[in-house]
Amino acid sequence: MRVLRHGVGMLLVAVLLGGCVGFGMERPRVTLSDIAVKDARVLEQVFEVKLRIMNPNDTELPISGLAFDVELNDAPFASGVSGEQVIVPRFGSAVITAEAVSGIAGIVRQLAKLAEGGLTSISYRITGKVYLGSWLQRLTFDEKGEIKLPAGTEPSPGSGKL
Q: Which of 7, 95, 100, 112 sits between 20 and 30 A of 56, alpha carbons compared?
């Protein structure tokens, strides 16, 4: 009896530690849809970020929030969260609004890369967790993308303009 109780306990722990990882659900795709400066201070910048969540599953995803990190050109840029609740339809998508914060180091790194010139696009990577209902249910995501810069946005060598 003791062995059976121990086995059931271990099974319960395994399920809880797995965070229900969707019980066979595929991970959602999360991509940047839009980003705008919400507040800019000397040491910190706050962005309003719109994220598109695409559901590749045959069942809807009841999202209760998410947490994420953004890298630009392979360097850490910002971290963000959203408590917005949305139901992403099966084989569908939804856009949520999140707040992301970047420190001065993230901005300086990106300005330095722009000042070097020759950039025609900015690569990004967004990683994080989507929470489904309870704190036990979450799905991770890790997506990469590229933002094409309009022609003429790069500074000319030696101009000193960003």
A: 100
Closest CA to 31 of 144, 147, 123, 148: 144
For residue 100, what are its two tokens?
């992301």
The CA-atom distances, in angstroms, between 149 and each of 32, 35, 82, 120, 121 are 15, 14, 27, 5, 5
- pLDDT tens string 77-123: 999 999 999 999 999 999 999 999 998 887 777 777 777 777 788 88
- Angle among Cα 94, 134, 38 to the nearest 5 degrees reads 45
Per-run averaged pLDDT (10 residues), the chain, 162 residues = 53 43 78 92 92 95 95 91 96 97 82 76 92 83 88 51 40
CATH, domain 2-148, list 2.60.40.1820, 2.60.260.20, 2.60.40.10, 1.20.200.10: 2.60.40.1820
